[in-house]
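BUG: 3D viewer hangs when loading the predicted structure for this chain

Environment: internal workstation, default settings.
Expected: structure renders.
Actual: progress bar stalls at 90%.

Input used:
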Amino acid sequence: MAKVAWIGLGVMGFPMAGHLLNKGGHDVVVYNRTPGKAEAWLSHYGGGRTAPTPAAAAAGAEFVFACVGNDDDVRAVTTGGDGAFRGMGAGAVFVDHTTASARVARELATAARERGFSFLDAPVSGGQAGAESGTLSVMAGGEKEAYARAAPLISTYARTLTHIGPPGAGQLTKMVNQIAIAGLLQGLSEAISFAKNAGLDLDLVMSTISKGAAQSWQLENRWKSMSEGRFDFGFAVDWMRKDLAICLGEARRNGSSLPVAALVDQFYAEVQTMGGARWDTSSLIALLDHPGNA
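Structure tokens produced before the viewer hung:
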């Protein structure tokens, strides 16, 4: 059993912290900017403790985990006035599951090293469903030794976890993931729209092509809801646009060309205009089904 602090109890962090407590059997203290969520977490999982600040949560912890919103949020809960870095001791490990920039990951890895502890950037893929079922994919950057120590704890909510490389490598890999998903979803949207306009039996078509080279997680898990126009679940368009902004910013720095990702980002902006800011990312098809609404 390890002494663990968890910072950020959103739709992802809430169940992930729960797995550490109930599946992993660890001693977990939680912090959330809205205290009511922390109290709700204690009630839901029947254990753990709350702390009034990230620093207080991290005091005495061997491992500190965070899953918050963006670069500024990560900085606030780490090096901010009441940030976790102020409470962490030598030899501890900070694991950041936020999807953020590689730049902030490298910045905080340096800050942690100067203070005598370790920092891992470890964004996840699998969405809320993966967090709840404990089947996330985790891609980590940072020191190998720190990763090896944290891996058994991460495995309580992850099906696959991989050490990619030095600080920032986890965030860069998550960018690769999001770039691929953006293109896949636009292609799937166009394919479904084409099949419907052609008068084909969608069940038969999708069952057939999912057995061949067109197979993907998005096809198998999203085609049905996409064809029915159901998007009130999953990974929100707002979040995807945040992630794509990170991807496009990094591409400008490393000289990559991302024409499809840039175009899909514009399409997501149109979905937001339609009122779909909180719709699942598969809602790209709404622009094809109802082009006059954009």
